[in-house]
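Here is one chain, start to finish.
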Amino acid sequence: MEKPQPAYRPELFVNHAEEITLVQQAVRDALVRKSKRTRAITFYGERGSGKTWLARHLSTELPNLPDVQEQANRVEALTLFLAPPRVEVDANATQKCEHCRFFDESAAAQQPPVKIVEEMLRWVCQQWGVAYDEQATAADLIYWLGRDLPRRNNVAYVLIVDSVFEFGKGNERLPLLEDHLLTPVASLDNGLVVMTGRGAPFPWRSVPLRQESLEKVLPPFHAQDVGEQLARSALLADSARAERIHALGGGYPLNTYVLGQADPPEAGLEELVDVLLDFVQSDVQWSVREALEALCVLDCFREREIVIMMTAHRRDTAELSMEAARGVRDLLLDNYLMRWQGDGYVINESVRVAYRSYLRYRAPARFEAMTDRAIQMYRGWAAQYPNAQTHYRRQAEQLEKLLASAGALAPTTVR
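Its structure:
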């Protein structure tokens, strides 16, 4: 890539006005201590949908609410980034984020989950000036937090937690995070918790997180917003180019940024499919990429589709075993790259659209081979299972349309 992925700067931030307004209203309600109000907000988003930038923007902008300044109110916002991308964080940007903490998974690998969460609780208490003692237990800190902060008038305390579900590690840590930090802050008369994450939602137990909360999915950008993002990032941004990048990358901010640096945009697809996996451990990155290439032409699938499509992708004479297919399934689930939806597994759209575009325009023979194999698979099942014939025929017809449209986005000329 010609440029690294950009560090956050307010002037580069685009869209998400609705989400920001939602948080701002919740802050106002916390300032006046409304009894019935939203105490926790969760924004769900796929890889590259702008969750971390939204968290960072909120941490920067919330203290500057006009009515906060006009009425001598104050917003104290802290941000925990629990699963940052596997890229170096810009040093200057980190220094400017005075009330942010970046969790280091590698440094915490040998620590018990309770110690990790207790350290976060201690940091929050120190940042917010809660009565503090180095020898205090977690129970002491939780008590002092709930005692001290509500006594302070005209102050709202906002805890922003980025990538909360990715922090789960098999759900070992999230119950501890809920009990030690999220619930105590959300339960404050003047507290609010804002979370972002991808992957399966966690079944919170506490009332503030379960019943006094809102959830919202971050949508991809429209073509107009893609153009604005390109322009703010000092990248070529004429309307035709913005529409093309939107078609190739689906309107997801990370996809847009990577493709926007290439000319023509298709030339950036190889880089994009790698960047989308930069958080995956290096020893399994190729296996993850192989699985995504094999399955991205499918809208929905189960283990038996994995068997057939992975076998076709590898061009093996011996069919993949069901045990191996379950291993592929778990690999994608463990990396939050797909989820169960309706009747089967669905690859996250930001990743699926990028991998489909990559195959169509950088590896067309592979795209045709995988799509053909999927059509044969569904046509065969339509003949084999009369009761499900309509469903399988519909799947085959959709893939035939996908294959027929492969040339609809003709490659642009390299300038």
